[in-house]
Amino acid sequence: MKTKKNKLVLTSTLLSVALLAAITPAHAVVDLVVTNARALLDKSQGKQAYDLLEPLEQTRAGDPDFDISLGIAANEAGEFSRAIFALERVLSVQPDNARARAEMGRALFAVGDIKGARQVFQQTKDQGVPVEVAATLDQFLRAIDKIEQAGLSSWKAFAEVGLGNDTNINSGPGVNSVAVPAFGGLVLTLNPGGVKTGASFATAAVGASGRYVIDSRWSLIGNVATNWRGNSGGNSAFNTTQSDVTAGASYIVERNDYSLVAQYSASGVGGTNVRNSTGVVGEWTYRFDGFRQITSYVQLGYLAYPLQGVRDATRNVIGSTYAHLFSNGLLAFGGLYFGAEKEKAAGVPHLGHKLSGLRLGTQKPINPSMALFATLGWEGRNFGGVDPLFLVTRQDRQTSLNLGMTWSPAKDWRITPQIALTRSSSNIVINDYDKRMISIAARREF
Q1: pTM for this structure?
Q2: Where in the chain is the domain with CATH 2.40.160.60?
Q3: How far apart are CA 441 and CA 446, in angstroms?
Q4: Which residues of 60-89 are buried (b: 16+ CB within 10 A; e: fewer)?
Q5: Which pLDDT tens digit goes with each residue over 334-385?
Q6: Superfamily of chain region 154-445
Q7: Computed from CA positions of residues 347, 351, 357, 363, in that sequence, does the dihedral angle turn out positive or negative?
């Protein structure tokens, strides 16, 4: 998706340069406001031109000279939906206006209507335009071909290895003894395995994903991945494994992308399977244009604990995330989610909880092969009953911060050093902990 967005930005920029230089508006006699706006456009000051014209749209809409200038300025300012409305008004009264038609194709391309953009650009070319503009339109049509080819059936795989150090591999508290109210405040010493333990670690992961395109709208999608983490210093009891499988279908129509997948996940600790998760996830992505999108999802799942059946629960989560790719390459996103884990066993409400969370993140390219990233997460969990040992209703507040860099030293290779900080505050001491993890991973894609 990121590659597709980069193509959108690059190709749209190339087209705008050619259009500004080679196609002139149909009318030469215009008022002072439009003249000033076009002067700003000639100086590549599209945002200023848009800010000049946009407040006048309600009173000036329908004037082709005004509308085409507004459409061009909106395209230059990244306001592609507004550009479409303005250019539609121009083409309704001037269907042969080559500049308006070409700018319409540019706006449609930016909002992700590839089919519509192809049709408009081909019509513009067939209508007859200067040679240099025709060449640019050909370049644009070839870019569309590449994007459409990217929508063909495909598969990819990866392998990854990593090293790191974790100050708390078992997410344990920093104390080795606790007072237990259910036993009259008796102070008990925790098992060493339940106390904060640090270690170096190594990781390995492999995976594959694929898409089988049925037609222009329907596709079958699937993913399989497994990862392993081994700890140093005789801490193999905390080695972890996880395997995930998803399979489902996606449906794309205009700016909407819907998907429904079934999921299965198995988690192990110390060589023993400790949790299995099954469920379905429904997702809807709406693309406002080539640079902004919102994704909403619903997750319905069942958690099974082979060694502790009393902890079996349903887990349902709903959330939404907004992402924005800025013209300077900065990607930013933010999302909220809400849900609940409902215990299946009777008489153990303290094992179930309601949850809510926030995720924020950003990525900034430094050069074509390197980018910096940062993510911030917060989750609150309010449990459903009084803990039988500590005689309070558990409340957790967890904050996590990840800072790192991605570097691509060669095609299909990615190196990712990062630091991850986690702080989980709880009113039950054995669930109160912090950790710092520093790692570096090397990934090869196939």
Answers
A1: 0.70
A2: 154-445
A3: 17
A4: beebbbbbbbbbbbbbbbbbbebbbbbbeb
A5: 999 999 999 999 999 999 999 999 999 999 888 878 889 999 999 999 999 9
A6: Outer membrane protein transport protein (OMPP1/FadL/TodX) (2.40.160.60)
A7: negative
